[in-house]
């Protein structure tokens, strides 16, 4: 989940935000599978694009280079046709529209490199002839309905559908984007994206995907079908002087994760399941929280579907992990800061522009009979408290509470 300051909530489950658990049931969902690569294509911006001036990464971009995990998204679509039909009829449309989209979003076809002026600075470089890796594959060994469902299914099988970013033998050179389309013969297909977070945030990646979709829907796609992004990263200024503190905290967080052990991606018993709160669930939660608020004469605060969903998940996690007493707990979520910058930056800015909100409670407060209401009020007040704040000030507060945060929400999929 991702808070963008609006009151819209949609049920969306990007690949990287699925909840992973270990189960011994549903053996059918743990079938081992394989992927056969049919084509490996390089997609170039079209019309051909000459080399562009390097774009220096802002401090909000470069911090993500400290984190080795890219952003992964996985979407499923019904496609009850043979693989040959997809290759003959659908693939040309997808590649042509992607090529046009990359003409506007050319940083995704370039590379991230250290700046020639400093080893501590990075830039995105696009040179004529740069391209995006595009893989077409066919899946065997598991049913499409099974692997695309919400029940627990093999995490290892899901990872077969997501491409890896191209690596470089030249040291600090990073690839921004890889795409993989996997066909399930006569059943469906998946589109997997792997994006280096240093290039853009969740809002930016969805801006790219929506632009590609718009071009793909057009009978005869042209550049006019695509809304161009705002690419000037110089609008992001470190007014709070927090760049180095962010980098130090990111390295510290990476060390904490290393001590706790790496995520067991290869464990064949690991499964992913999707848990959904439907509209009626959310309405009941909001009504319950609002009633308590009125009964107890509590002041009004931001109360949305996002707030009550976070409150519910947070309390469930606290109970499941067995926290109790006066232990300090925090919940954090990225916040789109484009409209909050002073002065505001364009809404179509393509890069990272994320702040964060933090809600803080003690375990005993979360576990009481009014735990959801207490959590919702704290989250709502935290969101209200963002008004008028400097981005650096907000990020610094997040860093200071890093060791206490037990739940960090992520993903920008709208």
From TrEMBL:
Cross-referenced InterPro entries: CAT-like_dom_sf, Plant_metabolite_acyltrans
Gene3D superfamilies (UniProt xref): Chloramphenicol acetyltransferase-like domain
Highest taxon listed in the record's lineage: Eukaryota
Example of a GO MF term: acyltransferase activity, transferring groups other than amino-acyl groups
Keyword vocabulary terms for this entry: Acyltransferase, Transferase
Name of the protein: Malonyl-coenzyme A:anthocyanin 3-O-glucoside-6''-O-malonyltransferase
Protein species of origin: Dendrobium catenatum
Species lineage: Eukaryota, Viridiplantae, Streptophyta, Embryophyta, Tracheophyta
């Amino acid at each position: 989940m991702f808070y963008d300051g609006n009151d819209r909530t949609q049920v969306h489950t990007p690949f990287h935000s699925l909840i992973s658990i270990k189960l011994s049931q549903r053996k059918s969902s743990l079938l081992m599978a394989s992927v056969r690569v049919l084509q490996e294509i390089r997609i170039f911006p079209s019309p051909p694009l000459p080399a562009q001036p390097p774009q220096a990464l802002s401090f909000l971009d470069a911090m993500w280079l400290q984190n080795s995990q890219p952003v992964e998204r996985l979407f499923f679509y019904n496609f009850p046709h043979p693989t040959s039909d997809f290759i003959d009829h659908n693939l040309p449309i997808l590649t042509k529209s992607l090529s046009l989209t990359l003409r506007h979003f050319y940083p995704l076809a370039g590379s991230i490199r250290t700046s020639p002026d400093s080893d501590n600075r990075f830039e995105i470089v696009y040179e004529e002839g740069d391209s995006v890796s595009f893989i077409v594959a066919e899946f065997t060994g598991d049913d499409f309905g099974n692997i695309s469902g919400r029940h627990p299914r093999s995490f290892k099988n899901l990872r077969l559908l997501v491409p890896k970013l191209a690596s470089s033998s030249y040291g600090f050179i990073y690839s921004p984007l890889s795409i993989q389309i996997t066909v399930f013969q006569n059943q469906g297909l998946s589109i997997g994206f792997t994006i280096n977070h240093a290039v853009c945030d969740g809002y930016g990646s969805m801006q790219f995907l929506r632009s590609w979709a718009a071009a793909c829907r057009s009978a005869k796609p042209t550049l006019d079908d695509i809304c161009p992004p705002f690419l000037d990263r110089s609008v992001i200024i470190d007014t709070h002087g927090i760049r180095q503190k962010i980098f130090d905290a990111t390295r510290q967080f990476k060390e904490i994760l290393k001590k706790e052990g790496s995520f067991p991606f290869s464990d064949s018993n690991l499964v992913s399941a999707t848990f959904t709160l439907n509209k009626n669930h959310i309405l009941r939660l909001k009504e319950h929280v609002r009633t308590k608020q009125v009964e107890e004469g509590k002041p009004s605060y931001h109360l949305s579907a996002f707030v009550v969903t976070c409150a519910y998940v947070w309390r469930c996690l606290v109970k499941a992990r067995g926290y109790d007493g006066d232990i300090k707990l925090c919940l954090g979520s990225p916040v789109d800061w484009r409209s909050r910058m002073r002065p505001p930056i364009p809404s179509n800015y393509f890069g990272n522009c994320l702040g964060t909100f933090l809600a803080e409670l003690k375990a005993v407060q979360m576990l009481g009979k009014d735990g959801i209401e207490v959590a919702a009020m704290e989250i709502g007040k935290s969101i209200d408290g963002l008004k008028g704040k400097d981005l650096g000030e907000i990020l610094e507060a997040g860093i200071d509470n890093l060791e206490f945060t037990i739940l960090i929400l992520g993903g920008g999929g709208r």
